[in-house]
Specification:
Layout: E1 7-13, E2 17-24, E3 27-34, H1 41-55, E4 64-69, H2 71-77, E5 84-89, H3 95-98, E6 123-126, E7 129-130, E8 136-138, H4 142-154, E9 159-163, H5 172-182, E10 189-191, H6 192-195, H7 201-231, E11 238-241, E12 247-249, H8 250-255, H9 263-278, E13 283-289, E14 293-300, E15 303-304, E16 306-307, E17 310-312, E18 324-326, E19 330-331, E20 334-337
Parallel strand pairs: 1-4, 4-11, 5-6, 5-9, 9-10
Antiparallel strand pairs: 1-2, 2-3, 7-8, 11-12, 13-14, 14-15, 14-20, 16-19, 17-18
Helix pairs in contact: 2-7
Amino acid sequence: MSMPQGVRLGADIGGTFTDIVLDVGGHLHSCKLLTDYATPEQPILDGIANVADQAGVTLDEIGSVIHGTTLATNALIERRGARTALITTEGFRDVIEMRTESRFSQYDLNIQLPVPLIPREHRFTVKGRIDAQAQELQPLDEPALERLAVVVDSGGFESVAIGFIHSYLNASHEQRARDILATRLDLPISISSEVSPQMREFERFNTVCANAYVRPQMESYLSRLQRRLAEQGAACPVFMIHSGGGLISVETAAAFPVRLVESGPAGGAIFAADVARRFGLNKVVSYDMGGTTAKICLIENFQPGTARSFEVARTARFAKGSGMPISIPVIEMIEIGAGGHRPGRR
């Protein structure tokens, strides 16, 4: 049998359903299955077998897989991530709890700010300081990091986040801290200068914490997905949709899973922009109805709006500052809960 041209597969894991679409030379074949949170790769594999049978192709004929998912989002919202340690500059232990000290509801005397992702007893500090001109003011306390490695190892932690002051200008302290810990710990270590190399320590620290928090779960899932695809004969590359609407490799996604927080919804917005382009509609509002969340996006001149940061799990519906800030490129959308069989899913 000759190889079909342009055989591509799309997979989207949502809060309720997992959707699979196979494109064989412009002809689409699709199926929908319930999402399995214990083994999210299983509905994908079952769906691939279904659509491949519909199309009359074998798995080795699939040229590429493009995958969007809300697994990282739900892990953050439901606080189902790894036991994570944050290591930061001395004096900055409480940055993720103090936030920016602004109030999203100025006159509410009973306001409740979001609980930090990492509790205080899991945050540790070391001496060492880089200034705002990227110069070293104080050398990194390497013996203290070696002692911290023992504490983290004995504390049952599954992941480590490192966030130092001004590391977006000079990452040497974070990189050295990672090297020291990596020789003593068999854990994933995320550093803020790689995850979100931007100024504003609260947003940067929170983003690296979120990355470390979901990283073991997402690394495990993506590894299983690739292995099981290969076992069933699909040796094609797998690409992940990131929150900004582009594609990244599975390896990059496993190291920086926070970039997948708006992965699935971003794919919907990109598709809506493509539909708008085909019909010549330069001002469009897209509406993406899922099992647990509805997403609305403004599309102008065939492009969805983008931003450099957004908030997850706002405690007050549309109040800026009431959620968990994530500093990554993202397609701007409004999301509203729509019920569903799994409360809290997005």
